[in-house]
# Entry
Amino acid sequence: MQLLTFYILAFGAVVSALLMVTNKKPVSAAMSLIATMVFLAGLYVLLDAHLIAALQIIVYAGAIMVLFLFVIMLLNVDEKEGRMAGNTILLQFGAMVSFGIVFIMMVGLVKSGGTMLVFGEGADQFGTTKAVGKMLFTDYLLPFEIASILLLAAIVGAVILAKRRIDDPDQRSHHSGS
Amino acid sequence: MVSLNSYLILGAILFTIGSVGVFTQRNALIIYMCIELMLNSVNLTIIAFSRFLNSMDGHVFVFMIMTVAAAEAAVGLAIIISLFRNKATVNVDDINLSKG
# Structure
């Protein structure tokens, strides 16, 4: 039963990831990526990581991808903008790199002697919100606080990067016009 | 029973698909999505190892990676917006401001 669930979720994740990579339209690519993230959340549940699975749906599929869709619709990019790499050198390089990664993976698998590393019995309350939260607020309190500062810096950076300059000539003429 | 190997192979396949996307796509937004996919595949690997080693430290790591991914998405999309405002394109072939 668990094996079947794993294969269904893994197949779905790989297929939707391939759909995203081969897509030319940003909106469809974003939708495929959301599907991949939902399948990955299912895999996290299989791995007893309940809090992370919930966060995957809420933060990734919810917040980050909505931000992506917002920007895609805000920019309203033409379809021809999303064309694939026209020059074959880049495509060949991409193929070479991907085959390299798969090759390294295969070498690692062969070196491991094909032994299947089976999961043991999970500890009590493994991956629950209570257990992870306790860890986050005791052992990892300082990294947690630093993460909040990082988010604050990201907010300030995003506002400064995306805002229009005050001395922008377009803005000024618009103001004097009205 | 699903073994650790299956999860590692799935993570590697997803990472590879993401890196192929970064090399073949020309739209800056889709390249960003491919980077997100690569981050996700690493998360899957960390969670699988965390379950295998029966230690929850990996979950905290994934939590931090999600925070960094959110910050990266916010700043990166702001950069794309200001680029689009100046060059009216998101095609990375047409954006070569740093080219000497």
In short: The mean pLDDT of chain B is 87. Chain B touches chain A through 70 residues (CB under 8 Å). The CA atoms of residues 87 and 95 of chain B lie 8 Å apart.
